[in-house]
Amino acid sequence: MKQATTVKQAPAAKQAPAAKKAAPAKKAPAAKKAAPAKKAAAAKKAAAPKKTAAPEKAVATVAPAKARTAESRLGMVRRARRINRELAEVYPYAHPELDFRNPFELLVATVLSAQTTDLRVNQTTPALFAQYPTPEDLAAAVPEEIEELIRPTGFFRAKTKSIMGLAAALRDDFGGEVPGRLEDLVKLPGVGRKTAFVVLGNAYGVPGITVDTHFMRLARRFGWTESDDPVKIEAEVAEIFPKSDWTMLSHRVIFHGRRMCHARKPACGACPITHLCPAYGEGETDPEKAEKLLKYEKGGYPGQRLNPPADYPGRPAPPAPGVAPGAVQRPSGAR
């Protein structure tokens, strides 16, 4: 019996120390330390929904754009052509707003029109062309004298270099005549596709799309393109309209951009084509307030040309300050 008792107690005595050693493995205090970390993680998750709210707002702001893309290609083309027809009724007198008498004057005036208004160019070119009427005359001029004459147009040193350079190229390479081909015009100093199409369309009757800042803005607002690259816009718009419409389409869209569909405050409430415009509402929609935003003849003010076409309904622009009316006025340019 004693031996049996001893055998039973011996294992118990050996297990006791093992139990004591196993106890530290639980590390209860460590578990308590982990609790604050879990609470901190839970707190961060609770705060997370505040950040995820932003995407919902972003989706809401782009909803109108998605609504535009829902329009079929055929529907967009039909709407675009209808805009062109209705703008033709609004601006039956649309025309180039630079004064000129021949292709050379139009070419020089268009180069000078960069980063300024057509009005400022029209007030400047009479004196310039009075002294330098031909490419030969302009190419042989004293640069400082040209700079002084065109100073009001801004960037006068760079523009002097461009117009004297193109005049020399016309004299040396084209017999003093402005070429009637796009590939030749874009080789001239200071002449890009936009300037070339202005000359081709208005001096030679060759269709072209003039993508200036106004045309670019309205083409995007009308949903004709999503690009901000002038060359891509030109190509995309060319696929929408017949080639025969390109020149007059350019005039109408530019006219509308200058008179109503302004960059900062479009006169939406006074616009006659709002039923066709997916961007309606970007500007002032109140008719009375919108009426006050209209410019040039639509607002009852003078236009940009000193010598506008005979069918222009507005008033001619005034000559440059200090120049007597009629002193250097010229006949209206070709249409």
Describe this structure as you would to a colleague.
- This protein is mainly α and 335 residues long.
- 57% of the residues lie in helices and 0% in strands.
Offer a quick outline of the entry.
This protein is 57% helix and 0% strand. It is an all-alpha fold and 335 residues long.
Helix content: 55-70%
| SSE string | HHHHHHHHHHHHHH
Quaternary assembly:
single chain
How much is the radius of gyration in Å? 36 Å
Low-confidence stretches: 1-35, 48-67, 328-335
Mean pLDDT: 84
Task: Itemize the secondary structure elements and their pairings.
Elements: H1 2-26, H2 28-69, H3 73-90, H4 103-112, H5 118-131, H6 135-139, H7 143-150, H8 156-173, H9 182-185, H10 193-203, H11 213-221, H12 230-238, H13 246-259, H14 287-291
Helix pairs in contact: 4-5, 4-10, 7-8, 11-13
Q: Main attributes?
A:
about 325 residues; mainly alpha; disordered N terminus; disordered C terminus
